[in-house]
């Protein structure tokens, strides 16, 4: 039994996963309402609430799985990337738990965790495949040949797709988190109403800064008479087009038949409709969670007791 902890941003999460990839428990405490008035995550607020939530979330996960700490064989935790103060809360908690019971600890890269969400029951995906990782902090194309590793084919040159959704939502006067708000409003609009630009940068990289600027100018142009639904639909279409075109190019370059999508943006309804042949992370595992961290720990080298006490987080 693997105990996973995740505190890289604004979700405090704990999960218990078996060696064969069955989720025994997955508990996520979101801080979205706390950060909504600011239109984004405030790192200091996030860190303080992780301190308050980590023990109750851990207890809830153990109770949901019906196990005790004595039945845990190793501890896994997100080491980075993420908000450094938030990461240190989870890493400190994981060190304490592992040290108290003399267990090995597995430090997990957050991005490896997102990919490892595809390896969980009941429908695990077998490599090789091309993976689009699109979240609030990252937008990357990955070549996955084996579990536990990947090669980066392309990444964003400026903003991530999830960040573009959040900032677009703020410009349109919508709530936070922005991705879900834009997705809901876009269903009422015409995606062809506004021809927003799709950046064409060299290689397999992405760029969303020009698209955000175009939305800003469109909002200013319309003033009080804002066609919010049409703007949301057109803006979303431009983001989805950028993601799908690049993913298909990566698929052609690598010659891999299968494609997969992970990260918070993988929950977007238009992206899912645009890629009917892709393997998507389950909706509950698209946003940050600890089950994916425990899953990644199955394919990573544990640090023996007590060597992990010197581990540090990375932003």
Q: What does the average pLDDT come to?
A: 96
Instruction: Show unreliable segments.
Output: none
**Rg over C-alpha atoms, rounded to the nearest angstrom:** 20 Å
Categorize the overall geometry. Answer: globular
Strand fraction equals 15-25%
CATH topology of the largest domain: Nucleotidyltransferase, domain 5
The percent range for helix content is 40-55%
Distance between the termini: 28 Å
- Determine the CATH superfamily of the largest domain: ATPase, nucleotide binding domain
- The ordered string of helix (H) and strand (E) elements is EEEHHEHEHEEEHHHHEHEH
What is the number of helices?
10
CATH architecture of the largest domain: 2-Layer Sandwich
Secondary structure tally: strands? 10
The biggest beta sheet reads: 5 strands, mixed
Q: What structural class results from the helix and strand content?
A: alpha/beta
Specify the oligomeric state. Answer: single chain
CATH class of the largest domain: Alpha Beta
Report strand order across the widest sheet. 3-2-1-4-5
Describe this protein's structure.
The chain is 40% helix and 17% strand. It is an alpha/beta fold. It folds into 2 domains: 2-117 and 289-310, Nucleotidyltransferase, domain 5 (2-Layer Sandwich); 125-281, 2-Layer Sandwich (Nucleotidyltransferase, domain 5), CATH 3.30.420.40. A 5-stranded mixed beta sheet has the order 3-2-1-4-5, sandwiched between helices. Helix 9 links the parallel strand 9 and strand 10. The model has no long low-confidence stretch (mean pLDDT 96).
């Amino acid at each position: 039994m693997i105990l996973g902890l995740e505190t890289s941003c604004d979700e405090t999460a704990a999960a218990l996963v078996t060696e064969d990839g069955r989720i025994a428990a997955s508990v996520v405490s979101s801080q979205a309402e706390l950060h909504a008035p600011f239109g984004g995550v405030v790192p200091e607020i996030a860190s303080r609430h992780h301190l308050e939530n980590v023990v109750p979330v851990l207890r809830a996960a153990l109770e949901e799985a019906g196990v005790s700490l004595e039945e845990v064989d190793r501890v896994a935790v997100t080491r980075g990337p993420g908000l450094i103060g938030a990461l240190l809360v989870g890493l400190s908690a994981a060190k304490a738990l592992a040290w108290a019971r003399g267990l090995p600890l597995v430090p997990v890269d957050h991005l490896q965790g997102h990919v490892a969400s595809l390896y969980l029951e009941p429908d695990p995906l077998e490599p090789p495949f091309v993976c689009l990782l699109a979240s609030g902090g990252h937008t990357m194309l990955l070549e996955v040949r084996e579990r536990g590793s990947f090669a980066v084919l392309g990444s964003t040159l400026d903003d991530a797709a999830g960040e573009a959704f959040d900032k677009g939502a703020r410009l349109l006067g919508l709530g936070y988190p922005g991705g879900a708000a834009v997705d809901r409003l876009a269903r009422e609009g015409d995606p062809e109403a506004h021809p927003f630009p799709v950046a064409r940068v060299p290689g397999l990289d992405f760029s969303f800064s020009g698209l955000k600027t175009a939305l800003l100018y469109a909002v200013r142009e319309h003033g009080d008479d804002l066609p919010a639904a049409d703007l949301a639909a057109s803006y979303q279409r431009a983001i989805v087009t950028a993601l799908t075109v690049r993913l298909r190019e990566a698929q052609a370059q690598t010659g891999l038949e299968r494609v997969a999508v992970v990260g918070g943006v993988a929950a977007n309804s238009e992206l899912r409709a645009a890629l009917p042949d892709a393997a998507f992370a389950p909706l509950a595992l698209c946003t940050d969670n600890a089950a994916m961290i425990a899953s990644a720990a199955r394919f990573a080298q544990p640090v023996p007791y007590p060597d992990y006490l010197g581990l540090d987080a990375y932003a």
